[in-house]
Known about the structure:
The chain is mainly α. The protein has one domain. About 90% of the residues lie in helices and about 0% in strands. The protein has two helices and no strands. The protein has helices spanning about 1-20, 25-65.
Amino acid sequence: MKRILLIFALLFSFSTVFTSCRDEKKADEQIEETMDEVGDDVEDAAEDVGDAVEDAADDVEDAFDGN
């Protein structure tokens, strides 16, 4: 009987250690992180569009210079 109680106490101790140490983000932290990611994605897309426009302008300039 004493051994069973000790086993249960040990299992309880392990379970509280592993479940209480999880780092959970709050809703406002998750929203802020998502907004930062979206902002970075928008900036990357804007840079890609700008590069594509510059490349197209260079192609048009080369086409006129070649004729």
